[in-house]
Amino acid sequence: MTTLAACNEPATPVGHTTLSLSDTVQLSAAGKTPAPETITPVRITFPDSRSYSAVPPAFHPKTCQLSSSHFTAEVQVPSEVNLPSYGTKTPPMRVRCTSDQFEFDETVKPVNLTQQAYSTAAAAHILVGYGLIGAAVTASQASQRDKSQDVYGYPLKIELQ
């Protein structure tokens, strides 16, 4: 099992969580060298966080297969899986889930998680009532950040539709 800190610090600082790859994730040779830059949790679920029990049995995929040039994994649905991230070199991942009457087979491209976090914060500022000024401050902070420190990985939520 590979264990990586979510930060670039030599020791895990207070308040930061150390994530490790999920047990079902198997790194290929390409996934081991170079080692993953970080580990990101990805939730695989049905749209709108529907309860799995609300989905008719014929549509229940027992598992989903995740694969890329760097790793493979088999996970249950719904679930959260800790996946490797290789920064800007994170390869696309195929997600394949099937059952008697359901098939989901798509390629998921990596995203800039740092940029997504800033976008989410700007939207939250508008909703909370800080309005355009709060969104503008967040946009200003986002534009002034050191983009070489951005974290890339798979979307934090993959919805099976």
Provide the low-confidence segments as ranges.
Answer: 1-16, 121-127
Which word captures the global form? globular
**Multimeric state of these chains?**
single chain
Strand content: 25-35%
Q: What is the tally of beta strands?
A: 12
Radius of gyration: 18 Å
Distance separating the two termini: 31 Å
Question: Features of this protein?
Answer:
161 residues; alpha+beta; 5-stranded antiparallel sheet; 3-stranded mixed sheet; disordered N terminus
Can you put this structure into words, describing what you see?
The two termini are 31 Å apart. This protein has helices at residues 29-32, 113-128, 131-144, and strands spanning 3-5, 18-20, 26-27, 38-45, 63-67, 71-76, 79-85, 93-99, 102-108, 111-112, 152-153, 157-159. The longest helix has 16 residues, at 113-128. By secondary structure, it is of the alpha+beta class. Helix 2 (113-128) packs antiparallel against helix 3 (131-144). It is 21% helix and 34% strand.
In short:
With 161 residues, the protein is of the alpha+beta class. Helix content is 21%, strand content 34%.
